[in-house]
Amino acid sequence: MAGFWLGPRAAMRGYRLFGYDSIGSTSSEAMASARRGDAGDVWFAALQQTEGRGRRGRVWESPSGNLAASLLIVHEGDAASVATLGFVAGIALQEALSGNLPASALRIGVDGADGLTGQGHAARLALKWPNDVIADGGKLAGILLEAQGLPDGRMAIVIGFGVNIVAAPTGLPYPATCLHALGTPVSAEAVFAALADAWVDAFELWAGGRGVADVLARWRRHAAGLGSEVAISHDGQVVRGIFETIDEFGRLIVRDGARGTIAITAGDVHFGATATSGRT
User: Fold this and answer.
1) Are strands 155-163 and 138-149 parallel, antiparallel or unpaired?
2) CA–CA separation, 65 and 22 (whole Å)
3) Are residues 244 and 165 in the same domain?
4) Consecutive H or E run containing 161
5) Is residue 3 part of a domain?
6) Do 57 and 189 fall into the same domain?
7) Where does the record place the BPL/LPL catalytic domain (predicted)?
8) What integer pLDDT is reported at residue 140 of this predicted model?
9) Residues 164 and 145 grouped into a single domain
10) Which domain, by its residues, includes 128?
11) Among candidate residues 118, 207, 150, the one with its CA nearest the CA of residue 34
12) Residue among 260, 265, 267, 233 at smallest CA distance from 247
């Protein structure tokens, strides 16, 4: 059994944890637990997934030594507020990873998708809308939010996190990286403990949906590609323009010189040379 542990703040708040060396999918296990009547606030973490998935049913590779973790929460709020939990997850994951990544290194980003540090300098880590964390221009981690209604009218929400610790997938249409390749020989268990604690802080900022504005403001501070050329592809259509902001609903706002501003609710985002090349 993998040696995962909760951070002190997560343990103090009463979160529970199931750790695995290998599992089909932590998110599937979390949702199955909800259907069995689990009250939530429970993590499922594994060193390997054999049936991991990303957005739109894509396969998420998770070889042994990487981190797959899913959090089950049971919530009574509306679907609109639940959707913003993806941004809560983003700021929690960014915080957990920033504590494990050296601040300075040779930058190798090729997508023009840099966030900013508090001093206004390019950051190694950035949040890429809607659900990725990138480091030095390569995808380091991803988030998947799933929700299902329960018989009592409440909603089971599973937030899945996948972090490339020891290896990154190859053969992708975008660059990917892992913490070890970035010079950080940290373990999946240590990253998980940091994530569990960072989640507590981010979730308390969210405050049952009342703090969405604060969450989005913090997310924007770490956003990749703000003010740069962006291309968003969705269902065979491509929208191009300038990434202006994330609005109060979490939509990506693109300024198109011909059509004004466009609010994007879903899609695959490309920055920099990729955005202007015509290839997405």
Assistant:
1) antiparallel
2) 10
3) no
4) strand 155-163
5) no
6) yes
7) 16-207
8) 95
9) yes
10) 8-221
11) 150
12) 265
